[in-house]
Amino acid sequence: MLTFTQKKPPNPNAAVVSTLSLTAEERTRSRHRLQMEDGQVVFLRLPRGTVLQDGDILVDETTGSLVRITAKPEPVLTVVAKTTIDLLKAAYHLGNRHVPVEITSAYLRLSPDPVLQVMLQQLGVEIKEEISPFQPEAGAYGHHHSH
């Protein structure tokens, strides 16, 4: 059984034995039992507070085997706006609610939440329900907390 205790930065040339697709929430867990797509059970035993990003490499503690993390597509709300200021206002209001948000110059992305969806609609932005990889900002202090 593989037990991953080290994280390395993304390296497209790493000799990985497999990939492990995780949701945004799963990528915040530093100690967890997971099942890979082939059915193999693996354990994460990473330093507390470790947040995995798409492309990160995990190292098994005994064999040194490498596994690449991929951001698993999951249900999300993607927010787009007609103007930059409207997108910034939406980001401001989401930030006031301390929810994980993926921020780009073209869109915001968050986990589905009917209350936040109504708030965003009232702000006049467009919301699309999608299945997509979700890569929220780590936050000002590098930690990600689900509420």
TrEMBL record:
<dbReference type="InterPro" id="IPR012406">
    <property type="entry name" value="UreE"/>
</dbReference>
<protein>
    <recommendedName>
        <fullName>Urease accessory protein UreE</fullName>
    </recommendedName>
</protein>
<dbReference type="InterPro" id="IPR004029">
    <property type="entry name" value="UreE_N"/>
</dbReference>
<dbReference type="Pfam" id="PF02814">
    <property type="entry name" value="UreE_N"/>
</dbReference>
<dbReference type="GO" id="GO:0019627">
    <property type="term" value="P:urea metabolic process"/>
</dbReference>
<dbReference type="GO" id="GO:0051082">
    <property type="term" value="F:unfolded protein binding"/>
</dbReference>
<dbReference type="GO" id="GO:0065003">
    <property type="term" value="P:protein-containing complex assembly"/>
</dbReference>
<comment type="function">
    <text>Involved in urease metallocenter assembly. Binds nickel. Probably functions as a nickel donor during metallocenter assembly.</text>
</comment>
<keyword id="KW-0533">Nickel</keyword>
<dbReference type="InterPro" id="IPR007864">
    <property type="entry name" value="UreE_C_dom"/>
</dbReference>
<comment type="similarity">
    <text>Belongs to the UreE family.</text>
</comment>
<keyword id="KW-0143">Chaperone</keyword>
<dbReference type="Pfam" id="PF05194">
    <property type="entry name" value="UreE_C"/>
</dbReference>
<dbReference type="GO" id="GO:0016151">
    <property type="term" value="F:nickel cation binding"/>
</dbReference>
<dbReference type="GO" id="GO:0005737">
    <property type="term" value="C:cytoplasm"/>
</dbReference>
<dbReference type="InterPro" id="IPR036118">
    <property type="entry name" value="UreE_N_sf"/>
</dbReference>
<dbReference type="GO" id="GO:0006457">
    <property type="term" value="P:protein folding"/>
</dbReference>
<keyword id="KW-0963">Cytoplasm</keyword>
<feature type="domain" description="UreE urease accessory N-terminal">
    <location>
        <begin position="1"/>
        <end position="67"/>
    </location>
</feature>
